[in-house]
Amino acid sequence: MLKRLLITLAFLLPGSLHAADLRVVATTNSMGALATAVGGERISLTVLAPPDRDAHFLQARPSMMRDLRRADLVIAVGAGLEAGWLPVAVKRAANRDIQPGQPGHFQAAEHVELLDVGESGAGHTHASGNPHFNLDPRRMSTLLPALAERLADIDPAGAPTYEANAAAAVARIETRMPQWQATVAGAPGAVFHHADTRYLMDWLELPTLGYLEPVPGVPPTARHISELAESLEGRDGVIIHAPYYPESGPKKLGDALGWPIEQRYTEPSEPTLEGWVDLIDGWVDALAPRD
């Protein structure tokens, strides 16, 4: 009887279940990296979008609803990135704690300054702003303390841990930023498939030489590639695209200009700070000047 009482009391004591207390669902591995960096052992994490898929174009699946139904917190990129599937999944999960406007619903885009706000037109555009800020160390650093504050709202006992973890992650990123910038100093710039590198190039102060898409979300056309090649003739640069995009457009442009072609995912392979740092390392290496 005494043993049973002691076990019950242990489960009731504050902090006694600190390991994986909070069930967190992130839409992407970048958002998951923020969660694990700040939450540490106090959270368990599920990521909805595979890193080798374009998060614009997923579909709400029963497995998503299952994970969201049990979640204490959902961390989304926002700015319309998951508009085609997350609202449906959250609604069907019927979990009051993670509905929009609740503490358990964290939209990262609401905590950073967005670029390209108000842009609209043909193709795949985001009038609320460009949602691809996960490649920008400045904005990711801003999100870490914001997420720590939200986790503390849900789990007050963990507030000191979340704050300390966020500060440590910010310090690590800020240490790497000058190294990344030095690596790409003098680089000629790049052509990309989509504007998912907008923040990266803004931070690195490198020129975007063009996009393979004639307008966002519209596949490259032969005419557009030819016009792009003509406008860039005689210049140096590199073509970088995600592996899930067709290779025909980059190859045609690369052949015309004699430029190297690099493939890089825009999400880390693992939802950890280490994985995200490796992701930025890869992009910096691809953009760096060539001998």
Automatic annotation (TrEMBL):
<feature type="signal peptide">
    <location>
        <begin position="1"/>
        <end position="19"/>
    </location>
</feature>
<dbReference type="InterPro" id="IPR050492">
    <property type="entry name" value="Bact_metal-bind_prot9"/>
</dbReference>
<protein>
    <submittedName>
        <fullName>Zinc ABC transporter substrate-binding protein</fullName>
    </submittedName>
</protein>
<dbReference type="GO" id="GO:0046872">
    <property type="term" value="F:metal ion binding"/>
</dbReference>
<dbReference type="InterPro" id="IPR006127">
    <property type="entry name" value="ZnuA-like"/>
</dbReference>
<keyword id="KW-0732">Signal</keyword>
<dbReference type="GO" id="GO:0030001">
    <property type="term" value="P:metal ion transport"/>
</dbReference>
<dbReference type="Pfam" id="PF01297">
    <property type="entry name" value="ZnuA"/>
</dbReference>
